[in-house]
Amino acid sequence: MNKRTMKYSSKLFMKGSEEERVDVGEGIVRQNLGFDDSLLLARVSFENGSIGYTHAHPHSQVAYVESGVFDFSIGSETRRMEAGDCVYIPPNAQHGAVCVEAGVLLDIFSPCREDLLPENIKE
User: Fold this and answer.
1) Separation of CA 121 from chain center
2) What is the set of domains in the chain, with CATH numbers?
């Protein structure tokens, strides 16, 4: 097996009850649950009415709605998404979400969103 050197890599086993949660403000809390250079999985909790403001980044993103209800916008299109639904966000697409009913998203990014890693991980 040919191993490549990773700039970043999380622990192999991560317990959600033990991993750091980061309060990013306005009713949103993010918890990174696994990453390396090529991907990042974050569990993001939203209070009712919290807003993931419109933004874009060069990463591909998949958002899985674990619980709650969200109005997702990608470009000029908005759809209501509920537990069990999934959203694919292409690189550089303007997107955002409004939490209609408190819930949790699982956000997967490829490659890794280095800007979401804790400072002690970065070189």
Assistant:
1) 18
2) 25-116 (2.60.120.10)
User: What's the Rg (C-alpha) of the chain?
Assistant: 15
Residue found by looking up tokens 């191993």 in the block: 3
116's enclosing H/E stretch is none
Task: Write the CA distances from 21 to 16, 26, 84, 95, 96, integer angstroms.
Answer: 9, 14, 23, 23, 21
Q: What is the pTM of this model?
A: 0.90
Residues 14-37 pLDDT 10s: 999 999 999 999 999 999 999 999
The separation between CA 28 and the C-alpha centre of its own chain, rounded to angstroms, equals 11
Q: What are the DSSP E strand ranges found in the chain?
A: 22-25, 28-36, 39-46, 51-55, 60-74, 77-82, 86-89, 95-110
**For residue 93, which amino acid is it?**
A
